[in-house]
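Archive entry: two folds, one per protein. Generate the first.
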Amino acid sequence: MWIIFTLLAIFFQTIRNLEQKKLSNKIDAITASWSRFILPFPLSILAIIYFYENLNQQFAINIFLNAIFQSLGNYFLIKSLQQKNYSLAIAFAKTEVIQAIIVGLIFFNTKINFYEILSIIIAFVGVLMMININISNKKVFLEKIKNTGNLYALLCGTCFAITAFNLKSASQILIDANFNYLISAILVLLFTIFLQNIFYGAIKIYQKRLICDLKKLFLAENILGFLIAGIASFLGSIFWYTAYAIGQVIYVKTLGQLEVIIAILISAFFLKEQHKKIELIGILVTLFGILFLLLHNFILHD
């Protein structure tokens, strides 16, 4: 089931990223980042009212960290999309799978076997090929890492890696309280969205731009993008959160690298951005790594 939810999440996230890229050309990155969390805000208020009794200290900590790091991750992604072509920004952000392994091993006692490591390395090499980064040339490699757009995307990956483990921990608390996977994921999402709207609103009040920037967001030429990004984001987040609640974080993130392939196809055919043969070969390598992981998962649970 986690595979189906992940594929649905990738579909809606791709739509959201495209719309937020367009919005970020018209409004600042913070407002563009906030735009994805505004529509579900009324639902999040209802969730707080009716389910606040499920809050305990550990759940509250997970939700708080989730809200902070998902907000930061989305902001860094938009900053990256503003400075790079679409597919490269997504590719660098998707290095989160390696970052997630590190975060999981250090902070969340994640266990991973040899075949899982092998498949993740294969998929990651494919992502490096799609990024067209030459590790053997240290000077070029360091220049690419130091590039501001790439750095934002890497920070995005770090934030999303931390987010995934916190939302899974929060979901597990609700599952242990006899909520099913889907309801648990939706409640964690709504509690998170409530805090995110508070955070972004406070930032805009501090900047003394709350009314001004909301007016920009709701201008006639921006409103369609806002609606599409908001709806696609909410649906995509429901599927992501459910996938993480059901499956292993590392598995979900590895399959999530399919988004890089979709991003390159969109970049090439719709945004008319140029790509080299090495990047196309990287697609096949990444696909092989993902399929190897999924095959191992099926054999393991057969």
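Generate the second and append.
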Amino acid sequence: MRRPVEASPRSAPTAGRVLRHLGLWLAALAALLIAAAGPIAGPDVGFDFLCLWPIGLVTWGAGLPVGFALSLACASASFAVGLLAHGAGEGMQAHLAVHLWNFAVQLGVFGSQSTLLAVLKERVVRERRLARTDELTGIANRRAFDEAADRELERARRQLRPLTLVYLDVDDFKRLNDLHGHSAGDEVLAVVGLTLRRGTRRLDTPARVGGDEFALLLPDTSLRAAAALLGRLRAHLGAALAERGWPTGLSIGSVTFQSPPASTAEMVALADAAMYQAKRSGKGAIHFEEVGEASSPRPLAAPMPA
């Protein structure tokens, strides 16, 4: 009997996304109405500053192009309404010059705010990304990995699907640094991170969790699938390292959980122990274990020599 497939979060708009889009449309409409109401109220009542809040909200939520387009629309609406309300009759040219000046000032103010908010949001997003990304390798850092592990563990409990956690350690990393310098060591780590990122699925989480230690979180992955993936990854990494003449490899420990463990800490401890078992078996080895209903590790495959 086939399992029902859960709807992807991207397959249908969520209630939160619909409300967000509705809020942005309402903010844009409010900005246009305020801009149009200003000239009607006359010069004694200032409405322009009230447009800044909805324009800022739209810019933050939809980006600079949309925010600047709304700024232009608000300035144009104010110009058109003002010209219709006060530009007719004698002195039309003088009124036109005033309204053009007001249009330019409003567009400058509204557009400047949109630009500043867009730059601020870009910096906030970048800082958030850096807080969750390892700068050297470009993959997740320890904080992001812990969050992903907690999330995938809960999902495995709900769906009763296998979950595999892999720990990888660079062999003789200190010796590599001593022989070739720390720049070579950094390059090795960067190559490992790039290979893990390119060789895995979007739903997987490769992460650097220590100096020369990496983790690979593989949701909905059986032991057989993990073995095939790790075999390919080790071959690609071995080729990349050998091409550069670096005398190192990876010791890999992989634990597949057929039933979810009690906690993320337990899951990490078992994967870390499997990785050290691989090191004891010979550098460059892969050690596989599977945790079943009894939540006890059981080796299912002999360590794979380099």
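Annotation attached to the second fold: Confidence is low (pLDDT under 50) at residues 1-12, 294-306. The longest strand covers residues 163-170.
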